[in-house]
């Protein structure tokens, strides 16, 4: 289930004027020295905010989490630095309130238009599995209509995501856009449909791979995961490269299903290696036949792999990319991921739908300012992963039905 039977903001425009909107957003942004260092997630909510303003709502009350404060007030995770950034983006005053529930908060909501409330995770009841009833009641008192625009949190059954009991609970424009793209690739993709998967451990991606094998035509596997595949499938020497012992059982099952479904799996054929997990050193490129010597580890795919991957990517018509192909945070091992990025951009220029599945891959794409060159860069790493695994997102399931 994606969004076909759930209400979205555009379905209730006649109900919006004069209403107090409680909007769950994902402002879990990096904050250093009291300043927001990456505002991507804040920017992503601006269209929904503008839509609400245009439709003459009475006020907008924003709820979000930030970091992992473990149910206690921790100044390190305050959302206060977000308010001036949002105010600058929306060109309107944003009033920050240093709690998210209680009479004091309700009183302050009488004076202003856009309010950003303090980190919901400062209350243990936000993430609790029981004993949250009073907290959820207090959140419900904040407004008249609930809007979920926090795609990145929609896979979590937390109080501010699933527990606000208002008569109307709808998807915001960002959530609708996310589900539109993922709905297209999961239900009616243009073909060939290619998935590019990175990441360290096979066990972390096994559900994803097994679900995608029912849908895709080809899969490129890179990152740390590739070494487990190569060791198990071809008995390649991988030196000190990352190896997932659970892959010994998992990889044969994946390969068997791929054969059964006629899905072609592409693995790297050469590797950029170093004698330790570091950027500098006696870096070498080795081929699959030679293998990786003891004491060395593969940190990126090599130029021949990138060339072969390029030919696969530019012929695809739908591409979902989840996970970098190397340790892109280290400049000497970023070329494989950047080459993949450029190939995806070329594919889009050839008419492909290209989707980046959040998390590290989104960070890579945004770090070189190329997000706009993709069809869609997801704001939710964990949420997009769960959708691609075939799971129902609690934050979507709890929205009002459209019929």
Structure write-up:
With 403 residues, the chain is of the alpha/beta class. The protein folds into 2 domains: 167 residues, Phosphoglycerate kinase, N-terminal domain (Rossmann fold), CATH 3.40.50.1260; 200 residues, 3-Layer(aba) Sandwich (Rossmann fold), CATH 3.40.50. The chain is 34% helix and 17% strand. Strands 5-6-4-1-7-8 form a 6-stranded parallel β-sheet. It has a 6-stranded parallel β-sheet with strand order 11-10-9-15-16-17, sandwiched between helices.
Key traits:
403 residues, alpha/beta, Rossmann fold, six-stranded parallel β-sheet, EC 2.7.2.3, Phosphoglycerate_kinase_sf, phosphoglycerate kinase activity, ATP-binding, ADP binding
The name CATH uses for the topology of the largest domain is: Rossmann fold
Order of adjacent strands in the largest pleated sheet: 5-6-4-1-7-8
Structural class: alpha/beta
Q: Radius of gyration over alpha carbons? A: 23 Å
Largest sheet entry: 6 strands, parallel
Q: Which band does the percent of strand residues land in? A: 15-25%
Oligomerization: single chain
What layout of secondary structure does this protein have?
Layout: E1 20-24, E2 31-32, E3 35-36, H1 40-43, H2 46-54, E4 59-63, H3 82-90, E5 94-97, H4 103-108, E6 114-117, H5 133-140, E7 145-148, H6 159-162, E8 168-171, H7 173-187, E9 193-197, H8 202-212, E10 218-221, H9 225-234, H10 247-261, E11 264-266, E12 270-274, E13 284-287, E14 297-301, H11 303-313, E15 318-322, H12 335-349, E16 353-356, H13 359-367, E17 376-377, H14 381-388, H15 394-397
Parallel strand pairs: 1-4, 1-7, 4-6, 5-6, 7-8, 9-10, 9-15, 10-11, 15-16, 16-17
Antiparallel strand pairs: 2-3, 12-13, 12-14
């Amino acid at each position: 289930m994606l969004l076909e039977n759930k209400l979205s903001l555009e379905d209730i425009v006649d109900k919006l004027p004069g209403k107090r909107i409680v909007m769950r957003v994902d402002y879990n942004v990096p904050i250093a020295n009291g300043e927001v260092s990456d505002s991507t997630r804040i920017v992503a909510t601006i269209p929904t905010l503008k839509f609400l303003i245009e439709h003459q709502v009475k006020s907008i009350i924003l709820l979000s989490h930030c970091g992992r404060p473990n149910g206690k007030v921790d100044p390190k995770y305050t959302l206060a630095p977000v308010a001036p950034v949002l105010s600058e983006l929306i060109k309107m005053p944003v009033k920050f309130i240093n709690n998210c529930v209680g009479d004091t908060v309700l009183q302050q909501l009488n004076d202003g238009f856009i309010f950003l409330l303090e980190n919901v995770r400062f209350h243990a009841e936000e993430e609790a599995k029981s004993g949250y009833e009073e907290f959820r009641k207090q959140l419900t008192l904040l407004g008249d209509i609930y809007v979920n625009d926090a795609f990145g949190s929609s896979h979590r059954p937390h109080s501010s995501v699933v527990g606000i009991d208002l008569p109307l609970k709808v998807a915001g424009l960002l959530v609708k856009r996310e589900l539109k793209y993922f709905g297209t690739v999961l239900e009616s993709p243009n073909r060939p449909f290619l998935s590019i998967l990175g990441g360290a451990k096979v066990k972390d991606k096994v559900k994803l791979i097994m679900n995608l094998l029912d849908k895709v035509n080809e899969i490129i596997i890179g990152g740390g995961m590739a070494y487990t595949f190569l060791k198990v499938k071809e008995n390649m020497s991988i030196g000190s490269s990352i190896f997932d012992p659970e892959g010994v059982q998992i990889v044969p099952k994946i390969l068997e299903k791929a054969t059964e479904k006629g899905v072609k799996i592409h693995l790297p054929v050469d590797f950029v290696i170093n004698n330790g997990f570091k950027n500098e050193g006696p870096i070498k490129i080795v081929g699959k036949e030679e293998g990786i010597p003891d004491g060395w580890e593969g940190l990126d795919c090599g130029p021949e792999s990138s060339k072969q991957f390029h030919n696969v990517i530019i012929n695809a018509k739908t591409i979902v990319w989840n996970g970098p192909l190397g340790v892109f945070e280290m400049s000497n091992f970023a070329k494989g991921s950047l080459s993949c990025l450029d190939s995806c951009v070329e594919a889009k220029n050839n008419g492909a739908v290209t989707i980046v599945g959040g998390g590290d891959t989104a960070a890579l794409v945004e770090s070189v300012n190329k997000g706009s060159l993709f069809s869609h860069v997801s704001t939710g790493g964990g949420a997009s992963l769960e959708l691609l695994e075939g799971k129902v997102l609690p934050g979507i399931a709890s929205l009002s039905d459209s019929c």
